[in-house]
Amino acid sequence: MAAVLVVGLGVTGEAVARRLAASGPVVVVEDHPEGQGVAERAARLRALGVEVVAAPGPAELARLVEGADLVVPSPGVPESHPVYGLATGAGVALRSEIELAGDAARALGRTLCAVTGTNGKTTVTTLAAEMLRAGGVSALAAGNIGRPLLDAVHDEAEVIVAEVSSFQLRFTERFRPRVAVLLNAAEDHLDWHPDFGAYVAAKARIFANQTGDDLLVHNLDDEAVAEVAGRAPARSVGFSLGPGGTGYRVEEDGGDRWLTTPDGVAFLAVAELSRSGPHDVANALAASAAVFDLGVSAAAVAGVLRSFTGLPHRVTPVGQSGGVTFVDDSKATNPHAALAALAGFPSVVLLAGGRNKGLDLGVLRREAGRIRAVVAMGDAAEEVAGCFEGLRPVRRAASMAEAVRLGAELARPGDTVLLSPACASFDWYPNYGARGDDFTAEVTKLIAQGERHDEA
Length: 456
Known about the structure:
The protein is α/β, with parallel strands linked by helices and 456 residues long. The chain has helices spanning 11-20, 38-46, 58-66, 82-90, 97-108, 121-134, 149-152, 166-170, 196-204, 223-229, 278-292, 298-307, 335-342, 381-388, 400-410, 432-455, and strands at residues 4-7, 26-30, 51-54, 70-73, 93-94, 111-116, 139-143, 159-163, 179-182, 215-219, 235-239, 249-253, 256-260, 266-269, 316-321, 324-328, 348-353, 371-377, 394-397, 416-419. Helix 3 (58-66) runs parallel beside helix 4 (82-90) and helix 6 crosses helix 11 (278-292). The longest helix has 24 residues, at 432-455.
């Protein structure tokens, strides 16, 4: 029987099975064998002697669990999946891929910096890795950002900066990064976690096993994060957008705003950041705090912050026409992210909707003062419309092309047409990147049509 049962044959599941196959028998189960890339991954694993079981029934899954010494669920396997109850009932250990990666990192002498939060994870992970390299430290970004952490820790790098999700953290018991970063916690993935408390508790696993000289970097402006950070077992340092306090913060001096260390040393003017929205400043402070503790100089940190222009689909301007700017924030897959984007613009036509993840979209009304009109789209179009009808003009769109056209019609010179959906993309698209690319393509067509009309 199998010593290890891997549940889910995505990129992470393949990495786990491939790494563990050299040490003993491995079985992988996949509930959706028709999924994109599954057949190819299954073929590669079978060539290594891994057994791949497609869509096992309840009895077969129970048999496989009972024959395993370890169950490794992939990040996308929801907590409601029967494998969790089966493993608990059979007394079989459950471990996530990042737990296995953390063990390997210690054995290989790698330093691990792990980043989590509802929003900003990928940006802060990318920033930290770039800052480390600018400071002369061999480093790479991995984990939820793309390359599985279990693969990355075997690469030649001194520091691995890992983006880790609540899904991955939920089933850890020993995971211990040298530096942990907890950015924020707002309602998200409540279609996976039973409630918000469980979601935050999973996030807090990032620092639960820290000891000695380990460090937690946490958001002082986030009530849920500040509360759990108070239980940190090792060192901790906060960051805040406000002045004063003892953490990394923003201070004013001579009319300028400065990013400042806990001991009051300014290391970069906010005006020097290539992007300086509130979330951009918070991300800069968090990444700086992490790498300063790993020995990176202020000059290296400031140099990266000056040149970093952001990542695709994160409040990214994609075009302008008739005094209206079009901005792609497709990465905003929850209301917290959409609110952060809205805060950066004075007058917006908001394009929102998609597949809701069990979240309260009504919180978007907090920024109604910045919203001229709303275009509701996707599976959650009626939920979005219900939030704003009677408060702001609302139109419904059946496609991205229609959403862009309606957004342009509703906007006035000086406005921003902002795609910040507050929902997942899986109703119309395979991922948020494809959604953002479609938005950009439609905006490009719209602008070209306008230019041809002007020339005529």
